[in-house]
Amino acid sequence: MENQILAINDDGSIQYQQLTSKYLEGACEVTKKTVFTSGTMCRFLGVPEDEDALAELTQISRTAAKDGVSVIAIDKTTDKVVAVAINKFLQKSQPFFENFRKTFKNPKSLKIIDFITSSDDHCDLFEHCKVDCLMEILFLGTLPEYRKKGIAKKLCELSVDVAQKLYDGVNVKKCVDGKDLTLEPVPKVVYAIFVSFISQRIGKELGFEIAAERSNRRLELMGQVFENPNSETATTTIEYKMLGKN
């Protein structure tokens, strides 16, 4: 069944499920309106005012979604995507962002890629956790009118559940492009780069561990130093949660 429901909120208005082809464009639109518009680094670099940068960055969501493990929240009244956790497998031998670095032209979107990859460089989680495959909660976003309802936390919780099922040998991947998805690769860790104090609180509540931190107030991107002394959150945290046999 394509639209298998993972959860429904207490009042029955929000439905959670894995992302499928039906909702792919809606999910990409949510990342564009949230992660790339209101995200701390995107705002600091002026991404929201740059349509070319937004278009390039949205390609990342569309590509990551092909792994079949993203989770979305849908308003049951409108059947519209209102929040997303775009999830992606990472393997040490297959760097995800290199192709984007080669094809992107906009300097702002390139700086966002540099921010993400340089955060990863602060801690080699493959070595830290002694694993060969991770599932990253790559982009987590909720439309403004649906915030403060616990939706983002639920998306993270369900993302861990999806990863755990894969770890246990159950292929729950959902294709978004008509291609069959095999069980492999299987993640052994779920991780995220939490930029805001809100997402960091979610990580703490769900039992994520902090592997490394970096300053949000002084950054070096593509050889340039950026000062952002008014950042609401002092540091970005690289956090992870080990999966285990049930």
TrEMBL record:
GO terms of molecular function: N-acetyltransferase activity
CDD domains: NAT_SF
Taxonomic superkingdom: Eukaryota
Coiled coil start-end: none
UniProt cross-references to InterPro entries, sorted A to Z: Acyl_CoA_acyltransferase
PANTHER family: GH28833P-RELATED, N-ACETYLTRANSFERASE-RELATED
Protein name: Arylalkylamine N-acetyltransferase
Source organism per UniProt: Tenebrio molitor
Lineage, opening ranks: Eukaryota, Metazoa, Ecdysozoa, Arthropoda, Hexapoda
